[in-house]
Amino acid sequence: MAVYTEIADDELASFIAGYDIGTVLSLKGIAEGVENSNYLLVTDAGPHILTLYEKRVDPDDLPFFIGLMDHLASRGIICPLPVRNREGEALGTLAGRPAAIVTFLQGMWVRRPRADHCFAIGGALAQLHIAGEGFELTRRNALSVDGWRPLFERAADRADEVMPGLAADIAGELDLLEQSWPSSLPHGVIHADLFPDNVFFLHEELSGLIDFYFACNDFLAYDVAVCLNAWCFEADGSLNVTKARALLSGYQKVRPFTPEELAALPLLARGSALRFLLTRLYDWLNVPPGALVAPKDPLEYLRKLRFHRTVKDVSAYGLIL
Ligand SMILES: Nc1ncnc2c1ncn2[C@@H]1O[C@H](COP(=O)(O)OP(=O)(O)O)[C@@H](O)[C@H]1O
Ligand SMILES: N[C@@H](CCOP(=O)(O)O)C(=O)O
User: Fold this and answer.
1) Contact 92, 85 (CB under 8 A)
2) What span, in angstroms and rounded, lies between the C-alpha atoms of 315 and 301?
3) Domain with 18 in it: what CATH number?
4) Phi/psi at 168 (5° precision)
5) Going by CA atoms, what residue is nearest to atom 23 of ligand 1?
6) Residue 4 falls inside a structural domain
7) Which of 39, 59, 149, 283 has the highest CB neighbour number within 10 Å of its CB?
8) Which listed ligand is nearest to 4 at the C-alpha?
C-alpha cells in the first residue's frame, strides 16, 4: 500500500473548493502502488484519483507528466486526464506536497497475464510510442544507464544484506552495460514503467494505461524491454516464450522493429532488469518509517537479469530471425 502523506480534512476541503467537482463524499488511501500517495476521491461528480507526488518525482517534471497525459489522450490513448481547477491549473499543493486530480479509469489490472494480454500490451505500447510523436516537452530518462551507478552507490554498502555477493554482481553488470549501451536507436516518448499494475482491462479488453510518472524520452525499444521483463516471466523466474512472442508480435503489428532494435533487445532487457533491480534494492533498504508500502522484491529482477545474460539474440524471445 502506498500512502506516505496523510491529508487533514480542512486541507482537503480548501483544496477541493478550488475545483468544480462537487462535494467530497469520501477519500480513501489506495492499497497499491509504491511511488506516490494515491487516494480514491469520490465527490458527487463521481470518482477521481488524487495523487500527492513523493520522493522520486522532481516537481519540475510535473508539467511534462501532466502535458503528456493530455497529449496522449488527445491522440486516442486511454489514460487519465488531469482535472483543472477554476484557474485552469492541473497542479496544486496539498499537505505540503505537489498534488493533482486525474480522471478515474474503469478496469482492473491482471494479476496473472496470459499471452493474449501480452499481445494487447505490445500493441498498446506501440500505439503509445506513435501517439507520443509531436509532444513538445521533453524529459531525460534519469533512470537510464548514466543514472544507474549513482543509484547503486547509494545502496552498494548494504546490498549484500539482501543477498551475499549481490554488490559484486551488480558492479560487474554496470561496467558491462556502461561500455556497451547503444548510442543511437529510434527514440521518442516512452512510458518506462508499463507493468501489469499500470494497465487496466475491462471485459477482456485493454481499457486504459496509468502511471506516467517515469515517462521520459529514450529508446522506444527500451520500453519494450521493460514490458518484456514485467509481463513475460513466470513466478519461478523463467521466461514464458509464448508470452514474449505475443508481446513482441503485438508491438510489431503496430510499429515494426528496425533490425538495430532487434539486435539491441537482449542488451536493453539486461539494462531494464538492472534498472528495476536497483530501484527495488534502494527502496528495500530505505522504507520510510510509518509509510504504508510493501517494497518489491529486488531479487526477482536479479533472476531476470541472469536470464538475459544467457540470451544470444531475439530468437530466445520467440521471434524468428
Ligand atoms: N486514473 C486512475 N483510475 C483508476 N485507478 C487508478 C488511477 N490511477 C491510479 N489508480 C489506482 O491507484 C493505484 C496506484 O497508482 P499508481 O499510479 O500505479 O501509483 P504509484 O505512482 O504510486 O506507483 C493503481 O494500481 C490503481 O489501483
Ligand atoms: N514498477 C516498479 C515500481 C513502480 O511502482 P508502480 O506501482 O508505479 O508500478 C517495480 O515493479 O519495481
Assistant:
1) yes
2) 21
3) 3.30.200.20
4) -65, -40
5) 33
6) no
7) 39
8) 1
CB of 105 closer than 6 angstroms to any ligand 1 atom: yes
Predicted ipTM beyond 0.90: yes
The whole model's pTM is what?
0.95
Q: What is the mean pLDDT of residues 174-193?
A: 98
The pick from 54, 55, 195 for probing ligand 2's pocket by mutation, whose C-beta has the most ligand atoms within 8 angstroms, reads 195
**Span from the CA of 34 to the centroid of ligand 2 (angstroms):** 6
Please, what is the average pLDDT of the chain? Answer: 95
pLDDT, residue 1, reads 45
Query: In a mutational test of the pocket of ligand 1, which residue from 210, 292, 293 has the highest number of ligand atoms less than 8 Å from its CB?
Result: 210
Res. 196 pLDDT band, cuts 50 70 90 = very high
Report the alpha-carbon distance of residue 151 to residue 133 in Å, rounded: 30
User: How much of the chain exceeds pLDDT 70, in percent?
Assistant: 98
Rounded-to-integer distance, Cα 259 and Cα 313, Å: 12
91 and 223 in a common domain? no
pLDDT on residue 55? 78
Atom of ligand 1 nearest to the CA of 2: 22
Other C-beta atoms closer than 10 Å to the C-beta of 128 total 26
For residue 288, report the distance from its CA to the centre of ligand 1, in Å: 20
At 2-44, the pLDDT tens digits run: 778 889 999 999 999 999 999 999 999 998 877 899 999 999 9
User: What is residue 255's DSSP assignment?
Assistant: S
Beta strands in the chain (DSSP E): 24-29, 37-43, 46-52, 92-94, 97-103, 187-190, 199-202, 205-209, 216-219
Say yes or no: CB of residue 280 within 6 Å of ligand 2: yes
Question: Residue whose CA is closest, atom 7 of ligand 2?
Answer: 33
CATH number at residue 265: 3.90.1200.10
Domain final position from 72, 103, 134: 103
Cell 515494426: give the residue.
Answer: 256
